[in-house]
Amino acid sequence: MTSEQTTPPCMIVTGMPGAGKSTVTQLAAELIPRSARMDGDVANRLVVNGRVWALGEPADEAARQVDLCNRNLCSLAANFADAGFTPLIDWIIPEQQFFFDGYDDLEAAMKRELGDAGWWFDTSGLTPQQTAARVVAEAGQRALVTPRG
Asked: 22, 61, 115, 134: least buried by Cβ within 10 Å?
């Protein structure tokens, strides 16, 4: 079975800042014959004046800009998918603004918001290349998200 047959139509790779999302999505995209990589940080930096960091103030403007970035990433991914490319989105996706004093709090917030959606796995014992290969090989079976309710 080829990666095209097992790869889902779109992948979102999320995790802690500095966890390796950008590295893994780039390496995974290189393993998929027709792929496109969307980086949420790059999309967010398209705002030149008036940009507010996701945890910045005013909080309502930060939330509005996070929502704008999310909508832009989804639209771009949909366009690539419609053109026959597998989009890989690299972005931290908690919905609510929160302040954290360490990675344990961030991980707890992400798990609280995302629950059992998708596929959570510990990559600490893997190289970036091994992680990317595992994402491409197994995401089609392990990372599927179905509508709730």
From this structure: 115
As given in the structure block, the two tokens for residue 27 are 């390496």
Q: Does the model's pTM come out above 0.85?
A: no
CA 107, 113, 115: angle at the middle one, nearest 5? Answer: 85
Per-residue CA distances from 9 to 12, 35, 86, 114, 140 (Å): 10, 10, 6, 20, 9
- Spatial distance between the Cα atoms of 22 and 14, rounded to a whole number of angstroms: 10
φ/ψ of 11, rounded to 5, equals -125, 135
- Name the β-bridge partners of 11: 88
Q: Give percent of the chain with pLDDT exceeding 70.
A: 79
Question: What digits encode the pLDDT tens for the residues 20-59?
Answer: 899 999 999 999 999 999 999 999 999 999 999 888 899 9
| Cβ-contact 13, 92 below 8 angstroms | no
φ/ψ of residue 38, rounded to 5: -110, 125
